[in-house]
Specification:
The complex is a heterodimer of chains A (about 170) and B (about 850). Chain A is α+β, with helices and mostly antiparallel strands and about 170 residues long. Chain A has helices spanning about 30-35, 90-100, 110-120, 130-135, 145-155, 155-160; strands at about 5-15, 15-25, 55-60, 60-65, 75-80. Chain A folds into two domains: about 5-85, Ubiquitin-like (UB roll), CATH 3.10.20.30; about 90-165, [2Fe-2S]-binding domain (DNA polymerase, domain 1), CATH 1.10.150. Chain B has about 850 residues and is an alpha+beta fold. In chain B, strands 3-5-1-12-9-10-11 form a seven-stranded mixed β-sheet, sandwiched between helices. A six-stranded mixed β-sheet of chain B has the order 7-15-14-13-8-29. The chains are: A alpha+beta (about 170), B alpha+beta (about 850).
């Protein structure tokens, strides 16, 4: 990344680790994560903020990281998909995606997982409609969303409780 | 072909194959540890950015590169003319003349032929510098009239895209089977439909195209790390153009973020990047952005059907169809005109139509080139056939369910020979339809539809789509387009190896994009080698250096379960035979006493006589002194197998032959509610019943059904690519192109039946593409809501405005259909 325009020195806490870098004023947060920090789990699927592949959590809020400049995250806290299995163990949600076949090509998955993680923080027991509304900003081209909805519901508290009785049928 | 009698496969059926085991791929993908093309790069690489035309059709008068080259950080720039001077010939043409005269070079030369056509490519030290520099390339254009209407493009009075070809018609041919004139004369009724139109859309993989290309000046090897889905096709097409032999390419792919056929389209970019890398003396990285993708990566085929005539008997038996089809290839021939024959894999659709004449014309227009798009070329035709079934039922006051059941190929008819000598392998369409109707609660909704009546402002519609997903192509069908082509048959390669410490490794020539090849290949290998799938490593993606490829390797055309797994199974069987041979020597036991299980070769019934895979591997790789020469000549623990389906070369004169090995079926039922005041369509219920023979992993199969259904519904209601009269794309980004969200796609109820294919090594059929059943199921439900006496739903895309028009069309205006009945045949009430 060459610096020909204004540059900014920024400090951001990413997945619990404080990092300081000098970045170009025009650098998008998603490029900061991917190119500068090498956190390539966060993906890019569009150039208009529609697809959600780049979804991360910034200061506790769900954010599309292509819609924020890196300097705007200065002083903030960013959580990416790489934080979900930080100790090497998959989260309940990640396991549910595997068990329910909620991913195919896996390209939307990191953003989808971040939206779902955020949803379950706000609403531990979402209905199918809640889930569909919560992921409406995350485009998946492979799954028709069916198994994604089931996986997220099953990772919710009610889903976990009924896990023994079978799949979380959408109602 | 069947090898179901082998003991290894019997074991397979009992063990891992057929089970919905969770995917091996997921562990890395849910952690964000997938390896997609933009995640990687090479030392010293530059970043490429294409300079693209804002005009749909224009002459290039001049290109001034100086302002861009003057920028700090710009490494190199390549224009179309300069690229052409380095090329030996245009890209390989599939078409005979005149299509073959519509040549394409790595970048546009002399003219641009669609909005987004690439005229130059810039290389710089960052993505941002390259983008800025591309904007400073000054191109002077002389705009020309844009050709956007498919049918008008064929008119000799229309301006030409390629003056050197003298026509916009790429290819024209008549497919004539049975005697449709006789059928039209002798039918009780002839239903005539003016026009049907299958719209342009794209499956739009979420990951755009991308490549890191390094032209190694020392060795002459062109390393292509990309997400291209049919690598050896790209090598064959661009190699002769840029002067690179096949063995000097090294195509590699890892994780691919969806492809759906679209990622067959960007070989021209790879060629341009190779020349740019050669010029700059460094690796180049190109990551397509979404708007660039929508404008240039490739769209699905748009097809217009005119003058459709359908001979029908009074009992609802449909004798055939006569139609003129106009297909729109866009500005360059990126895989076309193969689509002009691919559709004929499914000439009669799901039905026993005997008399079919299709007069097929393919044209170039000033639009984005078309490329294979999930359901490639068959779904357009199948949608037209399904429209015919519904319109016949509607006009003759017959039940569309009964018309389908009357005309379907029946379970006892298989293997069923179609009028053009394709062989439908197996299936049970009537039962599939019954299951789908039940899953969608069709009876309940039919009652609800009657209850609603008029005046409620809302209407219920129930629709059916029944289609086929023909899988494992016979490339010999290309000779129906161009008899001079040296192609026929198909194949896939795999290597199954016992590695140094006894690990089981599988390499395949496929380029999975979410289909779970690592899992299903591990399942079939595990069964044959007597291990668990956890003990089988399937290399991610494609690597030319593995030597596990043939000419048509890749992932496309619904074939992995047959050709990919056929190759893996063949290689695993070979490896197993080697293991047994080695164990016979090591354990001093006869062949019939050796069993291979749990990572050991054992003497059956004698616990003390066993050798682990690591021991066998050690004998061959690192401890082979004294082993009999004969044994070493037969056993290298590195088994390669090429699966070749049993095909003959089709007859290009009669346009007949077996064009595809398997036919998976999809019968979908959809229930919609239509708002009369707004034309808005809501999906109330959706059921999909698919039959793809034996399922190696039913969960993965169902996932593919979900995906194909989701994209089909999206295309039917939300996703369309339209050009204005000047050739400007109206949906160049995800703002305008409404990629369907979780709020747009309803819950899907899936059913399945398994009619094993008698022609494949494992009874499976390819099924990933689906046949486009949702496109018709939705259309059909809207038609049902429009009601008897209403206009024909004539377009495959029905957004609210179009539905509103259908509901409120002036009764005096054309309905798009008329029926003529033979004297003496039972009369039909018409409105």
């Amino acid at each position: 990344m060459t610096e020909r325009g204004t540059s900014h020195a920024i400090s951001v806490t990413v997945n619990g680790e404080r990092v300081s870098r000098v970045v170009s004023a025009r650098q998008l947060l998603v490029h900061f994560l991917r190119d500068t920090l090498g956190l390539t789990g966060t993906h890019i699927g569009c150039d208009t903020g529609n697809c959600g592949a780049c979804t991360v959590v910034v200061d506790g809020k769900l954010v599309k990281s292509c819609m924020l400049l890196a300097p705007q995250a200065d002083g903030g806290t960013v959580e990416t998909v790489e934080s979900l299995a930080a100790d090497g163990q998959l989260s309940d949600l990640q396991r549910a995606f595997n068990e329910h076949h909620a991913l195919q090509c896996g390209y939307c998955t990191p953003g989808m997982l971040m939206s779902a993680t955020y949803l379950l923080r706000q609403n531990p027991d979402p209905s199918a409609d809640d889930v569909r509304r919560a992921i409406r900003g995350n485009v998946c081209r492979c799954t028709g969303y069916v198994n994604i909805v089931e996986a997220i519901r099953s990772a919710g508290s009610a889903g976990k409780a009924t896990l023994a009785t079978g799949s979380a049928e959408e109602v | 072909m069947t090898i179901t009698s082998s003991p290894a496969t019997d074991r397979a059926t009992r063990a891992w194959s057929g089970r919905s085991i969770p995917r091996k791929e997921d562990a890395r993908l849910v952690k964000g540890q997938g390896s997609f093309v933009d995640d990687g790069g090479l030392q010293g690489q530059g970043y490429a950015w294409f300079v693209r035309s804002p005009h749909a059709h224009a002459r290039i008068l001049s290109i001034d590169c100086a302002p861009a080259l003057a920028m700090e950080g710009v490494y190199a720039l390549l224009t179309g003319e300069e690229a052409r001077r380095q090329c030996e010939t245009p890209f390989f043409a599939i078409a005979p003349p005149p299509g073959s005269l519509m040549g394409e070079w790595p970048l546009a030369v002399g003219k641009v032929r669609y909005q987004g056509d690439a005229v130059a490519v810039v290389l710089a030290d960052s993505r941002e510098t390259a983008r800025d520099a591309a904007e400073r390339v000054v191109v002077e254009y002389e705009p020309l009239p844009a050709v956007v209407d498919t049918v008008a493009a064929a008119d000799p009075a229309t301006p030409l895209l390629y003056e050197e070809a003298g026509t916009n018609v790429v290819w024209q041919g008549v497919f004539d089977y049975g005697d449709v004139d006789w059928a039209l004369e002798n039918a009780d009724h002839v239903v005539k439909i003016e026009r049907l139109h299958f719209h342009r859309f794209t499956s739009a993989p979420l990951e755009c195209n991308g490549a890191v290309v390094d032209y190694d000046l020392g060795t002459g090897v062109v390393n292509v790390m990309s997400n291209y889905q049919m690598p050896m096709f790209a090598a064959m097409v661009i190699g002769p153009t840029i002067g690179v032999p096949i063995n000097k390419f090294n195509f590699v792919s890892k994780d691919i973020g969806g492809a759906f056929g679209i990622k067959i389209g960007f070989f021209a970019q790879i060629a341009a990047l190779a020349l740019l890398s050669k010029k700059a003396g460094r690796a180049v990285k190109w990551t397509e952005y979404r708007t660039e993708h929508m404008l240039t990566a490739g769209h699905g085929n748009e097809r217009t059907f005119l003058d459709i005539e359908v001979p029908v008997m009074s009992d609802g038996t449909i004798l055939g169809v006569k139609v003129r089809a106009f297909d729109d290839a866009g500005g360059y021939l990126h895989y076309e005109p193969l689509g002009a024959v691919i559709w004929s894999q499914v000439v009669p659709g799901c039905y026993k139509l005997k008399h079919v004449r299709v007069d097929y014309t393919e044209v170039v227009t000033n639009k984005c080139p078309t490329v294979p798009n999930r359901g490639y070329s068959r779904m357009q035709h199948l949608w037209m056939i399904e429209r015919i079934i519904d319109v016949v039922a509607k006009e003759l006051r017959l039940d569309p369910v009964e018309v389908r059941k009357t005309n379907y190929v029946q379970p006892e008819d298989y293997p069923y020979r179609t009028p053009n000598d394709c062989v439908y392998d197996s299936g049970d369409l009537p039962r599939s339809l019954d299951i789908a109707l039940e899953l969608a609660h069709a009876e309940k909704w039919r009652a609800r539809q009657r209850e609603l009546g008029t005046g409620s402002g809302r209407r219920i519609g129930i629709g059916i789509g029944s289609t086929l997903d023909s899988g494992t192509n016979n490339f010999g069908q290309s000779r129906i387009i161009n008899p001079a082509l040296p192609f026929s048959g198909n194949g896939e390669a795999a290597i199954v190896k016992l590695d140094l410490f006894g690990e089981v490794n599988v390499n395949i020539g496929t380029t999975p994009q979410g289909q779970g090849h690592e899992t299903t290949a591990a399942q079939v290998t595990a069964d044959i080698l007597g291990v668990s799938p956890d003990m089988v490593t399937v290399s991610t993606g494609f690597n030319q250096a593995n030597n596990s490829y043939v000419g048509f390797s890749g992932t496309y055309a619904s074939q992995f379960a047959v050709s990919g797994l056929g190759a893996v199974m063949g290689a695993a069987e070979k490896l197993r035979r080697q293991i047994v041979k080695l164990a016979m020597y090591a354990l001093q036991a006869p062949e019939e006493d050796i069993e291979v299980s749990d990572g050991f070769a054992r003497v059956r019934g004698d616990e003390s006589r066993a050798i682990p895979f690591i021991g066998l591997a050690n004998m061959v790789y690192a401890n082979n002194a004294g082993l009999p020469a004969e044994l070493l000549s037969e056993v290298d623990l590195n088994a390669r197998h090429v699966y070749v389906p049993p095909f003959q070369v089709p007859d290009p004169v009669t346009k007949t032959g077996n064009l595809t090995l398997t036919y998976a079926s999809q019968v979908h039922v959809c229930v919609v509610e239509v708002d009369e005041d707004t034309g808005e369509v809501s999906l109330l219920e959706y059921a999909a019943v698919d039959d793809c023979g034996k399922r190696i992993n039913p969960m993965i199969v169902e996932g593919q059904v979900h995906g194909a259904t989701g994209l089909g519904i999206a295309a039917a209601l939300y996703e369309s690519l339209d050009y204005d009269e000047s050739g400007q794309l109206q949906q160049p980004s995800f703002y305008e192109y409404h990629a369907a969200t979780a709020l747009d796609i309803p819950h899907l109820d899936c059913g399945s039946i398994e009619s094993p294919s008698p022609f494949t090594p494992n009874g499976a059929k390819g099924m990933g593409e689906g046949g486009g059943a949702p496109l018709h199921a939705v259309c059909s439900a809207i038609q049902d809501a429009v009601g008897a006496g209403g206009p024909v739903v004539a377009d495959s895309h029905n957004h609210w405005a179009r539905v509103y028009e259908l509901l409120h069309r002036d009764p005096a205006a054309s309905r798009g259909v008329e029926v003529s009945s033979r004297k003496g045949s039972p009369s039909v009430a018409t409105n």
